[in-house]
């Protein structure tokens, strides 16, 4: 599989859960948190293992903060500014409209901390065949406790190949479960087949 994967970082959000450290003028994704680096800078550095040209979708008010992170991460990038925030789906649609229809776009939030960049890149590449086949690929994390802070993905059967072709990696999604109560989260862990929803998507642009 030689198709390029083009990362798109979604830099929106005001990070209210980290208030007062995170504020409207300096949301948590731009705040230096670990070794003097912001979560956005660490996200950009991690995505270099996928592609060293990265698109950032951001509010116009944060354009200088995003450019500062791009420079610190030593990546070349394209900055798409939103005059008014319209949430994730609109930002993803705008990025897709500006891409070539055959491009694979990797949408990732700016505020994740994933230490193993190479394993992350391998996981993303493993989803490329499914994305090329027309699937919207989402990535899950094996839960370690019944968290009520995350959404969950219920996984289904393994994907199958069309017309005898090799099956792409991954499983079908049965359903998404928004942030559950602790009792519901515990029951899902006991049942098995549920992952935390990472909010990361790989999809063909056209």
Write a structural description.
Helix content is 27%, strand content 30%. With 206 residues, the protein is an alpha/beta fold. The chain folds into two domains: 1-126, Spore Coat Polysaccharide Biosynthesis Protein SpsA, Chain A (Alpha-Beta Complex), CATH 3.90.550; 141-198, no CATH class. Helix 1 (39-47) crosses helix 2. Mean pLDDT is 89; it is low at 18-22.
Structural key phrases:
206 residues, alpha/beta, Spore Coat Polysaccharide Biosynthesis Protein SpsA, Chain A, eight-stranded mixed β-sheet, two-stranded antiparallel ribbon, 6 helices, 10 strands, 27% helix
In short:
With 206 residues, the protein is of the alpha/beta class. It has six helices and ten strands.
Write the layout of secondary structure elements.
Elements: E1 5-10, E2 32-34, E3 37-38, H1 39-47, E4 53-59, H2 63-73, E5 76-82, H3 87-97, E6 104-109, H4 117-126, H5 128-132, E7 137-141, E8 152-158, E9 171-177, H6 182-191, E10 194-204
Parallel strand pairs: 1-4, 1-6, 4-5
Antiparallel strand pairs: 2-3, 6-10, 7-10, 8-9, 8-10
Helix pairs in contact: 1-2
Ranges where pLDDT stays below 50 over 5 or more residues in a row are: 18-22
Helix content: 25-40%
- Total domain count: 2
Most strands sheet: 8 strands, mixed
- How many individual helices? 6
Distance between the termini: 18 Å
Report the radius of gyration as a whole number of Å: 17 Å
CATH architecture of the largest domain: Alpha-Beta Complex
What is the CATH H-level superfamily of the largest domain?
Answer: Spore Coat Polysaccharide Biosynthesis Protein SpsA, Chain A
Decide which structural class fits the backbone.
alpha/beta
- Morphology call: globular
User: Strand percentage, roughly?
Assistant: 25-35%
Q: Might you state the CATH topology name of the largest domain?
A: Spore Coat Polysaccharide Biosynthesis Protein SpsA, Chain A
The total strand number stands at 10
Look at the structure and give the mean pLDDT. Answer: 89
The CATH class of the largest domain turns out to be Alpha Beta
Q: What string, H for helix and E for strand, traces the elements in order?
A: EEEHEHEHEHHEEEHE
């Amino acid at each position: 599989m030689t198709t390029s994967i083009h990362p798109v970082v979604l830099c929106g959000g005001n990070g209210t859960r980290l208030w007062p450290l995170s504020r409207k003028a300096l949301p948590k994704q731009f705040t230096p948190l670990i070794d003097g680096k912001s979560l956005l800078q660490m996200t950009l550095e991690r995505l270099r293992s996928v592609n060293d040209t990265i698109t950032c979708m951001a509010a116009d008010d944060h354009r200088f903060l995003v450019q500062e992170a791009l420079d610190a991460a030593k990546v070349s990038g394209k900055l798409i500014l939103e005059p008014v925030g319209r949430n994730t789906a609109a930002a993803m649609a705008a990025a897709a409209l500006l891409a070539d229809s055959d491009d694979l776009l990797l949408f990732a939030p700016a505020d994740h901390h994933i230490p193993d960049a190479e394993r992350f890149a391998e996981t993303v590449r493993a989803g490329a065949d499914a994305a090329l086949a027309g699937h919207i690929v989402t990535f899950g994390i094996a839960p370690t406790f019944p968290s009520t802070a995350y959404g969950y993905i219920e996984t289904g059967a393994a994907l199958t190949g069309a017309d005898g072709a090799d099956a792409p990696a991954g499983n079908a999604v049965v359903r998404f479960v928004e942030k559950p109560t602790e009792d519901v989260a515990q029951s899902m862990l006991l049942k098995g087949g549920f992952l935390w929803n990472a909010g990361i998507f790989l999809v063909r642009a056209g």
